[in-house]
């Protein structure tokens, strides 16, 4: 099954509540996916700085060990490094050579990405989602079908700067897509089919496509069942396969656009009683961009 | 009138109270508050009662209904009225996928739109959708009637048997073995009475087209293999 949630704020006064709203949505979707959970939050960024979300153990001294103008914030098994954007290559090299046990799971100006095995409410609490603020965020509760129940297999998947994707469904041609994408420089960290979908979109965006055209193209190149929710630095998108195999419901108000696999996930949102609630159409690309 | 507040009462309690109603009970009109998109609300009813749900409902609302009238003052999730035998289900908002799936009887009225696979494998139910319906609707529909005041998505009536489909708006495409058919007086009369039952009295009957089975796929014939 899997559960997906997403919240894209139009009204900046709600930004301090992004994490708590998303945490409630995620917990409600436990029944659809109790194996693991994850979320990405687009928070504040600093001019000329980059955030790297790193996952692993013994994280406390990493920022200091890298040295220079590197700051770190540890949240349970994840560490968000804030580095000068010009230092990205250097920091990646340092991590690869000094701490090969760590894994970079997200990078960008504003994205922070957290995922773990376990019940969604526990995962949200371990990372302190409730207190996070931001402009938009997406989350996923996983019922594993295509690969093992591991943290690697948890969503979201991020394969490009400030990009992430969550997926409900299963892709049937992910092996051949992976063989097509790897020579083009798209690297994959797991065997998960959803990571291939994320990589496909990253490749399209690298090639100069807009988020909307990348998603439109995916309809002819991806085979299988999917409901995707995608985040970029400024955008939020939704796409379902042409037979809308997997469920989806959306709510839009003047303050936000919200996505849930079921309406239940949306009931705690402010003003939901007056929201326009609708089901996204199959094979139709929905994109919202921040001003 | 019994009022059940799902903010304090569980869905299971609600359903067991409804199932436990004595024959000829005077508690014939129920109101359910704070449904919050819960699944399986008012399922398996078998009594001539009315249940009003004050908000959005989740999956399989009013499934397997017999005799009862269930009114949802909001949207419903997947499978509203699935396998209904009799009675009435009235959704005032939109319905998600597979509305009225496999239902044998009764009337399902959707004031808004229904999404994919509306009336899939319907077996005698009458469905009136005042908005539009999604793709693969009435797939393998066996009997009953589907009336759509708006448009229909792709592959309407794919592999249809004897169900009758009336659509006022555009049909994106017809599925295998589904064809447009002549509207005769008996069909106009049936359509008029179904619209009246659904509370629509101002629709122009002449604006509807009728669709149904060409009956070429009833028995396997190798010349038709490509059509399946």
TrEMBL record, chain A:
Establish whether keyword Transmembrane is in the entry. Answer: no
Transferase as a keyword of this entry, yes or no, is yes
SUPFAM superfamilies attached to this UniProt entry:
N-terminal nucleophile aminohydrolases (Ntn hydrolases)
Residue ranges occupied by any Glutamine amidotransferase type-2 domain in the UniProt entry: 2-291
List, alphabetically, the InterPro entries matched: GATase_2_dom (IPR017932), Ntn_hydrolases_N (IPR029055)
List the molecular function annotations (GO) for this entry. transferase activity
Per UniProt, which keywords does this protein have?
Answer: Glutamine amidotransferase, Transferase
Q: What's the protein here called?
A: Glutamine amidotransferase
UniProtKB/TrEMBL annotation, chain B:
- What are the protein's GO molecular function terms? oxidoreductase activity
Show the coiled coil region(s).
Answer: none
Check the record and name the SUPFAM superfamilies matching this protein.
Answer: Alpha subunit of glutamate synthase, C-terminal domain (SSF69336)
- Know the name of this protein? Protein glxC
């Amino acid at each position: 099954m899997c559960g997906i949630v997403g919240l894209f704020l139009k009204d900046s006064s709600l930004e301090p509540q992004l994490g708590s709203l998303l945490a409630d949505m995620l917990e409600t979707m436990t029944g659809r996916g109790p194996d693991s959970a994850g979320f990405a939050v687009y928070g504040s960024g600093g001019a000329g700085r980059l955030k790297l979300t790193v996952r692993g153990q013994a994280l406390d001294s990493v920022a200091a060990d890298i040295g220079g103008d590197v700051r770190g914030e540890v949240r349970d098994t994840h560490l968000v490094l804030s580095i000068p954007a010009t230092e990205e290559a250097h920091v990646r090299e340092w991590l690869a050579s000094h701490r090969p046990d760590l894994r970079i799971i997200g990078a960008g100006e504003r994205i922070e990405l957290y995922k773990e095995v376990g019940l969604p409410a526990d995962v949200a609490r371990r990372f302190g989602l409730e207190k996070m603020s931001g402009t938009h965020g997406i989350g996923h509760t996983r019922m594993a079908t295509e690969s093992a129940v591991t943290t690697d297999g948890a969503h979201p998947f991020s394969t490009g700067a400030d990009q992430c994707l969550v997926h409900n469904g299963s892709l049937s041609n992910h092996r051949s897509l992976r063989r097509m994408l790897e020579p083009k420089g798209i690297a994959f960290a797991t065997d998960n089919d959803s990571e291939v979908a994320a990589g496909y979109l990253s490749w399209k965006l690298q090639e100069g496509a807009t988020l909307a055209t990348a998603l439109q193209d995916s309809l002819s190149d991806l085979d299988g069942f999917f409901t995707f929710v995608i985040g970029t630095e400024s955008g939020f998108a939704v796409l379902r396969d042409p037979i809308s195999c997997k469920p989806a419901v959306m709510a839009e108000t003047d303050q936000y656009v919200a996505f849930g696999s079921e309406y239940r996930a949306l009931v705690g949102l402010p003003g939901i009683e007056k929201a326009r609630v609708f089901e996204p159409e199959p094979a139709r690309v929905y994109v919202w961009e921040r001003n | 009138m019994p009022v059940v507040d799902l903010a304090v009462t569980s869905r299971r309690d609600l359903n067991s109270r409804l199932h436990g109603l004595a024959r000829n009970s005077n508690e014939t009109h129920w109101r359910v508050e704070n449904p919050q998109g819960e699944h399986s609300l008012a399922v398996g009813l078998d009594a001539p009662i009315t249940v009003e749900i004050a908000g959005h409902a989740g999956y399989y609302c009013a499934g397997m209904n017999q005799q009862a009238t269930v009114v949802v003052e909001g949207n419903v999730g997947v499978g509203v009225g699935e396998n209904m035998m009799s009675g009435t289900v009235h959704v005032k908002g939109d319905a998600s996928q597979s509305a009225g799936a496999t239902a044998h009887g009764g009337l399902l009225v959707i004031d808004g739109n229904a999404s994919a696979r509306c009336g899939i494998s319907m077996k005698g139910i009458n469905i009136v959708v005042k908005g539009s319906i999604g793709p693969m609707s009435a797939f393998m529909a066996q009997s009953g009637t589907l009336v759509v005041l708006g448009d229909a998505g792709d592959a309407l009536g794919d592999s249809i048997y004897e169900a009758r489909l009336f659509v006022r708006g555009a049909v994106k495409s017809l599925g295998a073995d589904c064809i447009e058919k002549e509207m005769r007086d008996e069909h106009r009369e049936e359509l008029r009475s179904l619209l009246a039952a659904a509370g629509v009295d101002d629709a122009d009957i002449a604006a509807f087209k009728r669709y149904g089975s060409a009956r070429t796929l009833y028995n396997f014939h190798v010349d038709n293999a490509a059509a399946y």
